[in-house]
Design a protein that fits this description.
By secondary structure, the protein is an alpha/beta fold. It contains 11 helices and 23 strands. α5 links the parallel β7 and β8.
Length: about 475
């Protein structure tokens, strides 16, 4: 008894030293116990989001100790962190085009598998404002002939999106009304840029006000189609310029100056869409610091977005520690053929993008293309070996990739507005995990076993325990029902 009390006190001291909020000791649940549902995906693909036998979480019997387990996970829902927006991927024009080419029954089946409760219930979707490197070709919403300008944006139109992207999104919204949309431009219209070209160049300062109205027109046009824009980033990968596909350099100073224009423009127009800064790799995590430190600009910015192509996920915590009042979102990483093993990809995704990113304060996690074909396209001179969440082949076959199952272990079970809660893992470095409390009170725990052997884990919550055998190189989601044993 003394040892258990000492361990509990030490755990609390560790959490307090990390600066987390502590609001009391959890009260033990009723003696009837709590039902635990389990879903597992194994690295060998023998289990793919497979429903396992339900477990019962109950008090340990003094004379009947649990079998030995190397790993123990202690949950405390009185210690909370960030609120969750959702998990998902990007509906690029390439993705929407592929989905729209399917026969109506297969199209509906794909959308159901992605957005419905019977599917994986994606709740967070990123959009490209104009073309990205995954589009049918390059465009913006206000393209003009060389030498022309349109200060009144009289030629602004989202007609291009009305062909593929908007119909797919509208159908997705009919399936899942909780979807949040985040939009990002790859380039301003060429006539606003120093290069006079959609590829490379920067936004000319004299067009900051016009470009702010461009954003507003986009948001209002999508709203008119029943598609509210929850957030925008001001520039995809602002420190990257490509001579091959739409891109636009925007230094931290340039973004700060633009925020001082677009922020008041949103406010004056009554636009509540969040403004998210940066939207690039972990290695330049300090990009947003001057923006946050500027009192005028900071008031308009909700937080920063991060990509996976440089640096380490732990950089997100450096930003959070410096500016805890600002949100963090993980906004892009693509699957691809640089790692062909399903299990390796699954575990890397868990360690870095999902469990890792969330434990480093992400409010949401977004992968890149929701759908690509077997030739990694259609692409607009983009990545030659990127992989979609699903692959839609030219003959209409649909294949669910490791990215689908990576998202699923979170999106299917973690509700929007859930909060991350404290989870202390000890005893085995190959066991990693994170935990949430849904609005309905259910506790969701996602655990990954990076090791080459099956492991028994013990889960402890409110004085109750349960054990779960997690296969080698696998992921399990455990849902502890708030309604007790059914």
């Amino acid at each position: 008894m003394k040892n258990s009390l000492l361990i509990s006190l030490l755990n609390i001291c560790v959490l307090l030293s990390l600066g987390v909020h502590f609001s009391g000791i959890a009260v033990a649940a009723e003696d009837g116990g709590l039902q635990v549902s389990v879903y597992t995906t194994s690295g060998d693909k023998k289990l793919l989001l497979a429903k396992q036998e339900d477990l019962l979480m109950q008090r340990e019997e003094k004379n009947k100790p649990l079998p030995y387990s190397q790993a123990r996970i202690i949950l405390d829902d009185t210690i909370t962190y960030q609120e969750i927006d959702g998990f998902g991927a990007a509906m690029t024009e390439s993705s929407a085009y592929l989905i729209n080419q399917l026969p109506s029954d297969k199209r509906q089946a794909v959308l159901e598998s992605l957005f419905s409760e019977d599917g994986i219930r994606i709740s967070f979707v990123r959009l490209q404002m104009g073309a990205s490197d995954f589009a049918l070709n390059s465009f913006t919403y206000n393209d003009l002939s060389p030498g022309e300008v349109d200060l009144e944006l009289a030629h602004f139109s989202i007609q291009r999106d009305e062909e593929h992207v908007i119909p797919v999104l509208q159908d997705a919204f009919r399936i899942n009304r909780q979807i949040k949309l985040m939009a990002s431009p790859w380039s301003a219209p060429a006539w606003m840029k120093t290069s006079g070209n959609l590829n490379h160049g920067s936004l000319r300062p004299e067009y900051y006000e016009v470009y702010s109205r461009y954003f507003i027109k986009f948001i209002e046009a999508y709203q008119a189609h029943g598609l509210p824009i929850y957030a925008v980033t001001l520039q995809n990968e602002p420190l990257h310029e490509s001579w091959s596909y739409p891109s636009m350099r925007m230094t931290s100073r340039q973004q700060l100056d633009f925020i001082k224009v677009i922020g008041p423009a949103f406010e004056e127009r009554g636009i509540n869409t969040l403004i998210i800064t940066y939207d690039h790799n972990w290695d330049r995590y300090d990009y947003s610091f001057p923006i946050y430190e500027d009192e005028e600009a900071s008031q308009y910015v909700a937080g920063a977005g991060f990509h996976c192509y440089g640096g380490d996920v732990s950089a997100q915590s450096k930003v959070h520690d410096a500016f805890p009042e600002k949100g963090i979102w993980f906004t892009e990483c693509s699957g691809g053929e640089w790692a062909t093993n399903f299990g390796d990809n699954l575990l890397w995704n868990m360690e870095n993008l999902f469990i890792g990113s969330v434990n480093h304060h992400s409010k949401g996690v977004l992968l890149w293309n929701i759908a690509l074909d077997e030739n990694h396209g259609p692409k607009n001179r983009g990545c030659d070996n990127c992989r979609g969440v699903v692959t839609i082949t030219r003959d209409g076959e649909v294949h669910k990739n490791e990215e689908y199952y990576s998202i699923a272990h979170f999106s299917k079970f973690v509700e929007p507005q859930a909060v991350r809660i404290a989870s202390i893992i000890s005893g085995n470095k190959n066991i990693i995990g994170t935990a949430f409390k849904n609005p309905n009170g259910d506790i969701v725990v996602v655990v990954a076993n990076k090791g080459r052997n099956q492991q028994r884990i013990t889960l402890e919550y409110k004085g109750l325990t349960v054990q779960h055998q997690i296969p080698a190189r696998s992921v399990s989601t455990l849902i502890i029902s708030s309604e007790g044993h059914k």
